[in-house]
Input
Amino acid sequence: YNRRLEQRDLTVNGLEEVRGHLKRLKDSLEEEAHNDRLEKDKADDQYQTMEKEIEAEEREFHLEMKDTEEQNEAARLRGVQELEDARVRALEQVERELAREKAEGEERIRAIAQAQTKLEEEQAR
Output
């Protein structure tokens, strides 16, 4: 009987040791799972941060491209305006030269007419 009690006590003690070992194993696995979840959450946060940074860089790039396009268009329009202004100045210069030449021509015609009148007067005498 004592021997049976001893065996029973050994069996109970063995089962308690196994139960303790299983509990420690379970706790260890739960801790690993918790740490894995923390690492996954950290990795997800890093991924989201990188995604946001990439999106911000893309927006900045598109804004810079739009700004460059606007600057190029403004420069093109300034160039067109400068060409138009130069054309107008050239036309005005031509008009002034033509007016001067016309005035000189009219002055010559008057001088010739005066000389002809003077010549006719002298011939009439």
The helical segments are 2-124. Residues 2-124 form the longest helix (123 residues). The chain has a mean pLDDT of 94.
